[in-house]
Amino acid sequence: MSATSSSTNGTLSHTQNTIFSKEYLHNIAEIDKMQVRKWQILHQIALLQRENEGHDTEIALLLGKLDVKDNIIQELQAEVLEELNTMEARLQRLLD
What we know:
Layout: H1 3-9, H2 14-17, H3 22-51, H4 56-95
């Protein structure tokens, strides 16, 4: 279905005609950034453990940050999955 016929029947808005929403693309970028940061934190932890066992407090703080990053990644992945499901449903309606 073309964008012209979609707009004439009034069922799809301009944003629904785009393949990926700005929010979807933003969430994908955020997931990537969080995963990079997560690996940086894991690297810091490994270095601290190798240097000295006396850095337990610092390691605990980094592990806490890691948990926060994991939670954010999971939330963003859930939003991305929801967006994909919505797009799939829209496509299916267009095909029906």
